[in-house]
Amino acid sequence: MKDDILPPYETSAPAAPPYEEAQSHRDDDDDNDNATVEPTIFILAGQAVYAETTDGPPAYELSRAVATLTKSTEKVEFERLDQILSAAGPADDLAASPTIRRRRRCRRRHLYDLRRTPKQPRLGFSRSRARSDAPEDKGGRSRWVAADGEETLAIEDAADRQRRLILTRALPRKEVDALVALWCASIWQEAAVRADQELRGVKDSAFIRTMDTGRKMYWGKDVY
Prior knowledge:
Blueprint: H1 19-33, E1 36-37, E2 41-45, E3 48-51, E4 60-62, E5 75-87, H2 91-96, E6 102-115, E7 125-129, E8 142-146, E9 152-157, E10 163-167, E11 171-172, H3 173-203, H4 206-219
Antiparallel strand pairs: 1-11, 2-3, 2-10, 3-4, 4-5, 5-6, 7-8, 8-9, 9-10
């Protein structure tokens, strides 16, 4: 039978990339990791985090949409999407052409596994309420500060139901990665708490209490 056919004992391993290509990948990774990120606005939209606008490619991607998760989810993967510009076409063609065409490709970098914990790790940052009397701040903005609590690094904004993280100063790429990951983790925590409160509110309603009473009466079991 066809389903019983086994693959050959030996299979050819995929060819390793040329040394130049592998070295180029490492150089790209080093350049991105060591870069400095200027003040910008990060926007959370579904499973993606964009920089400045949602019209372009995302800067980060999550395996789940953290703004709608509950406590039943235990892990969310957090990746950075590096946009790499590389030459298009064979080297000989590029040398002969006065204009070098460039193509953009996306490199995924897995950075963190976000896990639901009662307390957020600090990682050199802490979160506090923003001190401002501006109308938009009264809805509940928070600020992210350095570990010493003296310098504000970023401010959260949720105007028009769009979650934003406003980076207020230039930071090394690795610190921005950690900051955005913690911001996403805090949104997940808020969503889980909110879902838990809504569930308790529904179970405490008169309708649900009546249904629970009926279930106990006819089936002899409680509902949790």
